């Protein structure tokens, strides 16, 4: 389980865990396409192992996050948005 701190997502410290079953992975976009989740943690909880979560906001996300499955997280507005957040920051 990875515990992720909070702060400006552009400066986030997000763990990118190994992908399992990437062929079955879905792309989720928070806050618009995550099963109605109002928080990023809710979106992470909604996503299945191996999914990709694209964070489509440039506002500060003030949450403590826990990731207990393999996910890929991407941030919009990141200086290298085509790469996972952990690689960029």
Description:
The chain has 89 residues and is an alpha/beta fold. It has one domain. 12% of the residues lie in helices and 20% in strands. The protein contains two helices and five strands; from the N terminus they run E-E-H-E-E-E-H. The strands form two sheets. The protein has a three-stranded parallel β-sheet with strand order 2-3-5, with helices on one face. The longest helix is centred in the middle third of the chain and has 7 residues. The chain is globular, with a radius of gyration of 12 Å. The two termini are 20 Å apart. About 12% of the residues have low confidence.
Largest sheet, order of strands side by side? 2-3-5
**Structural class of the helices, strands and pairings?**
alpha/beta
Instruction: Compute the average pLDDT.
Output: 74
What oligomeric state do the depicted chains represent? single chain
Number of discrete helical segments? 2
The string of secondary-structure elements, in order, is EEHEEEH
Distance between the termini: 20 Å
**Total number of beta strands:** 5
Shape: globular
Biggest β-sheet, characterized?
3 strands, parallel
Tell me the number of structural domains: 1
Gyration radius from CA atoms, angstroms: 12 Å
Low-confidence stretches are 6-16
Q: Helix content range of the residues, please?
A: 10-25%
The share of residues in extended strands comes to: 15-25%
């Amino acid at each position: 389980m990875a515990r992720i701190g909070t702060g400006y997502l552009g400066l986030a410290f997000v763990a990118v865990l190994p992908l399992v079953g990437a062929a079955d992975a879905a792309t989720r976009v928070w806050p618009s396409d995550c099963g109605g989740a109002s928080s990023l943690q809710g979106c992470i909880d909604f996503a299945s192992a191996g999914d990709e979560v694209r964070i489509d906001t440039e506002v500060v996300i003030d949450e403590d996050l826990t990731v207990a499955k393999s996910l890929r997280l991407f941030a919009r507005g990141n200086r290298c948005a085509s790469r996972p957040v952990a690689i960029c920051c």
